[in-house]
Amino acid sequence: MRATTASLALLALLAAGCAGTSQSGQPQAGDTRFVAGDGKMQIFAAADRKPAPVVEGPTLDDGTASLAAHKGKVVVLNFWASWCGPCRGEAPVLKDVAAKTKASGVEFIGIDFKDRKADALAFERTEQTGYPSIFDQPGKVALAFQGTVPPAAIPSTLIIDAQGRVAARALGAVKFTDLMNAITKVRDE
């Protein structure tokens, strides 16, 4: 019952993010309130970074993906859903940045949150992101970040550094330059 309540609360907060509800400030560890994002990357000082939780699950293409499979690499996690307009708007940016940073060892994993699989597959066919997306219908991956750096909106993007710590976060649709600069900074540390 507790997990269901927490999952429903997180869904409401994340769905509100896609709808554009606004409150000020950035949520911190353990904070579950919604904050509308502007897509700007917030980079955390290395000394302040918290380890990312376990991230793993079945992908939309019936494979599996995990953060652990990319140990020692910078990984970009993008929380999205086919029902989210800003997610559709940022998809070409993510695809472009993923393609441009792949050769330097940066990996991308999508986290399809609270979606119908058929809708998510249609989104993937249209966008052709070039990286796997974990099908996280119950929202377990997002909940795992509570107590570290919660995604707090759909879309949200987290950058995990080579040591497996949350190095940066953007709430809302990311912009090409902001995402590329943040990845480059974290990758080149």
CATH superfamily: Glutaredoxin
The share of residues in helices is 25-40%
> How much of the sequence is in beta strands?
15-25%
Strand order across the biggest sheet? 1-8-7-4-5-6
Low-confidence segments: 1-17, 19-35
Distance between the termini: 43 Å
- The sequence of SSEs as H and E is HEEEEHEHEHEEH
Structure description:
The chain has 189 residues and is an alpha/beta fold. It has one domain (2-187): Glutaredoxin. The protein has helices spanning 2-19, 85-101, 117-127, 140-144, 176-187, and strands spanning 41-43, 56-58, 64-66, 75-80, 107-113, 133-136, 156-160, 166-171. Helix 2 packs across helix 5. The model is unreliable at 1-17 and 19-35 (pLDDT under 50).
Question: Which SSEs are present, and which pair or pack?
Answer:
Elements: H1 2-19, E1 41-43, E2 56-58, E3 64-66, E4 75-80, H2 85-101, E5 107-113, H3 117-127, E6 133-136, H4 140-144, E7 156-160, E8 166-171, H5 176-187
Parallel strand pairs: 4-5, 5-6
Antiparallel strand pairs: 1-8, 2-3, 4-7, 7-8
Helix pairs in contact: 2-5
Distinctive features:
about 190 residues; alpha/beta; Glutaredoxin; six-stranded mixed sheet; two-stranded antiparallel sheet; 5 helices; 8 strands; globular
Offer a concise description of the structure.
The chain is of the alpha/beta class.
